[in-house]
Amino acid sequence: DGGITQSPKYLFRKEGQNVTLSCEQNLNHDAMYWYRQDPGQGLRLIYYSQIVNDFQKGDIAEGYSVSREKKESFPLTVTSAQKNPTAFYLCASNLGQGRNTEAFFGQGTRLTVV
Amino acid sequence: GENVEQHPSTLSVQEGDSAVIKCTYSDSASNYFPWYKQELGKRPQLIIDIRSNVGEKKDQRIAVTLNKTAKHFSLHITETQPEDSAVYFCAASRDTGFQKLVFGTGTRLLVSP
Predict the structure, then answer these.
(1) What per-residue confidence (pLDDT) applies to A101?
(2) Among A65, A81, A82, B14, which residue's beta carbon has the most beta carbons within 10 A?
């Protein structure tokens, strides 16, 4: 189903803790993206990667970090520096290469800070 | 940078009616306009897109129109069905990569039987 998998589906974090969200794709896509979705707002770009071992900040990168050691994987770490981390996080991938090719989204991870 | 506004935020229609969702954008150089559908608890999926070299595109019950002069584009759904109930997002960008897409705030469409 879709070829891009996020885990876990739900995640609870205590204040002050770092947590890592997983995103894996088997679509052989070069580019991967992380978005944050809040109620009443559009998707906002956190980080993106167009090729292995390279990634760029999006519009709201503060308090987040990523890595792209493998083509298939693009994990997102929500650090304790992120002031308001409770949100729905979506990962996406596409062929990239600077073109607006169709992107496929994962099912999302809902992060709640308790 | 680009700014995308989407209206209405919620839309309720009866099954069989038409639904129209409108988006405006600010960057006159934007030339790619996709629409995504997100059913409750599911991932967003591309349902239709349009590029600025055409004014309208149709796919069965779904159509998108683009007015470059006025900088707005709209999603039209005819003969709505309950399974059309979802949140719909518009987006806009120059054709320079998916990371440049700016999304609207979404429209929750509810189709009542």
Answers:
(1) 73
(2) A82
